[in-house]
Fold this protein.
Amino acid sequence: MADFPDYLDVDYTDGEGETPEDYPSVEHKIEKAIEVTKKGLEEYENPVVMWTGGKDSTLTLYFVKEVADRFDLEVPPVVFIDHFQHFEELIDFAKHWADEWDLDVIWARNEDIGSIVEERDLEPGDDIEIDELSEHNQHHVRNILEYEEDSFPFLLDTYVGNHLLKTVALNDAIEEYDVDGILSGVRWDEQEARADETFFSPRHDPDIYPPHDRIQPILHFDERAVWDTFWHFTIPDVVEGYPEEGYVPQSDTDLPEGIEQEDIPVSPKYFAGFRSLGSEVSTDKSAEEPAWLQDLDNTTERAGRAQDKEDLMERLRDLGYM
């Protein structure tokens, strides 16, 4: 902690003991998100925005762009973790909006794993021998994860796979670009492992990750508030010709006249019934109707995710996962 940059003036207890109910309206939530975003952009010298193409990180990116424009601040680079198992539509979506919004994108990849996958033409689930890995990755597997098997499956939603494909890729990018703060779309209600997070969350242990902070502007949003903000505030603001009062589409074809789905910064997977976007091989749609029309109050947002990884979330977060 003492070695972390002393130029920061942030309150690491902000949000402690709070829940989404402490911000009763969407307007209250937006006001707090703007406050946290502005503080993050002003205080950190080398911040980045974590962007997955999902609804939470895209909403966070929207706040970053709006706050930067309003207060004459720079839009930081965006980090997109390419774990080699994305839905193709999600990669296309990210590339399209990166171009539309003129984003500086850092494509964070575990190139060692990527080269093995390419050379051996591996499919998700195929085994990778630990001895094939670089010394850097072997260190993570043996010394940090204390994994003792001779191989691991090339799958994102496993303990070893998630750590190597996402966390190692992220931590390497943090180190390479000397990042001191990551603006991310983590939310209290999304997972029990995230329920005790604060708006400014320290990650200062150099034995685990390059020291940095997590800045979490939409921590206090619930799933319903995310979608309400999209359809009544974000989309009318960024999509030319969209009704100013907002409009909630009932399907992928139910859009205002002159508006196409590709005009809207909402992944087509949400229109198709997915509530949460993970890997292509282990994430299923929750229902047939679009995500925002589903029973958000009585069903689990991440039910379509592989549960073995969900059950490991606390351990993964201790190692630097989002």
